[in-house]
């Protein structure tokens, strides 16, 4: 039987080789400029669990250093056209965001065990969900108020402030000319009349604090606008292959 193609997803990648500080956030060629205005003091003051925020760049040869407990690794992707699972998505390669957290009493963010330590010893790089060996890492380190690492709201606010920072980069990435991409992939949700019906069941984390999963956020692999699987009662959710490819699931741990 001939398959019918529907819901085309096009992902255009822009490779980054340098990340440097700047007055304004922008992308030029293979360089990502991080603006000094990327932090938002108003947002930090509104988030009652967030006490302090620190941003640094970690180069591939600088991973033998101590970091606080790793909350998440986050790819930088944005929707340019269409909704999740279709249309056009821009993504950056060569750079990832790492979110870490601790509270003012030096209690590390953790659920079943914290992951603070020497970065090169705590992470297996080059696997699904982790940066590649040669990737640059934008490290977002959040200090929460006392007790903030042990409550779900505190961890959520870590993700919220980090998502705001990433959105500053997404807004620039969104405006890049797609013709300048360094790589392009196209995916289709295929329908095969008369073919076998295949469903893949994936059990995701849904307990609380760091052990949570967010789905269908506004941006691919984002936080804002998404729904926690906990708030959905840990009930089954139907996701198409292209929605999965496009970052509909955000594993927050």
UniProtKB/TrEMBL annotation:
Family matches, as InterPro entries: D_pro_red_PrdD
Highest taxon listed in the record's lineage: Bacteria
Protein name as it appears in the record: Proline reductase cluster protein PrdD
Protein source organism: Psychrilyobacter piezotolerans
Species lineage: Bacteria, Fusobacteriati, Fusobacteriota, Fusobacteriia, Fusobacteriales
